Amino acid sequence: MTGRLSGRIALVTGAGSGIGLATAQRLTADGARVLTVDRAGAVDIVADVTEPGINARLVAAAEARFGGLDIIVACAGITGMQPLDGHSDEFFETMMAVNVTAVFRLMRDALPLLKRSPHGRIILIGSVMSSFGEAGMIAYSASKHAVLGMTKSVAAEVGAFGVTVNCLQPGAIDTPMTAPAFSAMPEFKQRWIEKAALGRLGRPDDIADVAAFLASDDARFMSGHGLFVDGGATQRQ
Question: Which residues are catalytically annotated?
């Protein structure tokens, strides 16, 4: 049976683990040819997405390998906590470099190929904190608010070319990125479990399945949205 993404070409950053890995696997299962990127892991290209010029090279690599590009999924990201009192410039700037600047560059550099595609899709990873804040997570919350803002602005700009732009807003997801915080602060983990109406942390595939929907023709008339995929956590603030 032909998958709903058969013939599509995707580029997924942060694909070495967690949400990025699950998304790359799901897009592949749906028939897409996927170029995977991460700083480490069993991926097609090992790269740091904050390196100047790297995103243009990744787009060129997808075109060289597969002949074009239809879908980008910007899953590369970092998290962390640091209170405002004593908050370092380096921590804030690193968060923005990975979660915002690299995402902007990927969209910009992929756009010429996406405009040529009849199925152009930009899928970003925001957070429930794209829409609210959390004490001690100033830099992370700011970066994810920026992702949602870019989603809306870019969607307004590229819709004329048939390209859709959406971001996912996950709740607390059990990934290698979040594991250290959950391990160090069990009460933080339990609070997010209790916050979710479904009573559990999310899994990477919970997010990947929605990303695959956004990449498909089923979502052809959706653009400019941040979709909460949080187990109902935002209903229980």
Answer: 140
